[in-house]
Description:
CATH topology of the largest domain: Cytidine Deaminase, domain 2
CATH architecture of the largest domain: 3-Layer(aba) Sandwich
Order of helices and strands: HHHHHHEEHEHEE
Strand content: 5-15%
CATH superfamily of the largest domain: Cytidine Deaminase, domain 2
Number of strands: 5
CATH class of the largest domain: Alpha Beta
Helix content: 40-55%
Structural class: alpha+beta
Shape: elongated
Low-confidence stretches: none
Amino acid sequence: MKVKDIPPRERPRERLIQYGAENLSNEELLSIILKTGNGKKSVKEISLDLLNEFKELNSFKDATKEQLQKIKGIGLAQALTILSVIELGKRIFVDSVIKEKIILNTSDAIYQYMKYQLLGKKQEYFYCLYVNAKKELIERKLLFMGTVNRSVVHPREVFKHAYLCSASGIVCIHNHPSGDVLPSKEDIRLTNSLVELGSMNGIPIIDHIIIGDHNYYSFYEEGKIINL
């Protein structure tokens, strides 16, 4: 059924006006974002196809332009609109979280803060969390993205951003797409190098955490870093 064939009061935009966005279904919200269908499919049908393709709403966070355009009825403009809406939602969420003064004073607190950002990623992401003397988050920075097997990290970039935001300490965190959280020889070498440089620069590496499948490895908890 095309939107124009739906009784006016039951159309997505009219329902949004009358009941508010929080009372619309996922399909209705997507229909409003996509605006129109094409000659073969209505916007409601395309919205359903989109939901069926991604299975869960959480999967949308990693959507790509190419994935979206594979769905019949979604062109470049609509794909870019969807990606823009997703990114804006992420920024609203992150901004509201950061304003709450995130305190990262334990390895578990760090893991809880970052786990959803890294869970299910297909390649390695290396983040640094820059904190003040009270272990309050100042800035989160994605420094490197690597392949599934390796992420090349340059220590100078880690400390450059620490100086820029006047950080008192640094937490390094990255994921293992394999799900295995045990550090590789390369992870150990990198951590030792960063700890040494942190000691020399007066900005200690507080922890280096590896995230896998719903668990983590902490160099600090394992006694490999002594700072806290």
